[in-house]
Design brief:
This protein starts with a strand and ends with a strand. The protein has strands at residues 4-7, 10-12, 18-24, 33-39, 46-52, 56-59, 67-72, 77-82, 91-99, 102-105, 109-113. It has 115 residues and is mostly beta strands. 30% of the residues are buried.
Length: 115
């Protein structure tokens, strides 16, 4: 059973920054893919940024140039650095990991961008 624990969400003003963390219960390099999704009220969950096929990264068009995904294998942790935040980035952010054809999710962390 894979456990994912997110942290780092909160309230930030437009233009501000936040860094999300996702700590996994096992080696992050064992996962086929690992990254971040978000879900805004009334909308479907959608991809934000992920690692796939080793070190390859994939970003949603809406966050390219503003968000950066990174990882620390020694801490089994994946990060999402979010800069130049916009009100439309407001959502619950979920960590996701895939292994052996199964997907696992964290509990989510709320990010609110508002003045």
């Amino acid at each position: 059973q894979v456990q994912l624990v997110e942290s780092g969400g909160g309230l930030v003003q437009p233009g501000g920054s936040l860094r999300l963390s996702c700590a996994a219960s096992g080696s992050i390099f064992s996962f086929t893919a690992m990254g971040w999704y978000c879900q805004a009220p009334g909308k479907q969950r959608e991809l934000v940024a992920t690692f796939t096929s080793g070190s390859k990264t994939n970003y949603a068009d809406s966050v390219k140039g503003r968000f950066t995904i990174s990882r620390d294998g020694a801490k089994n942790t994946v990060y999402l650095q979010m800069n130049s935040l916009k009100p439309e980035d407001t959502a619950v952010y979920y960590c996701n990991a895939e292994i052996y054809g199964r997907r696992y999710w964290g509990q989510g962390t709320q990010v609110t961008v508002s003045s």
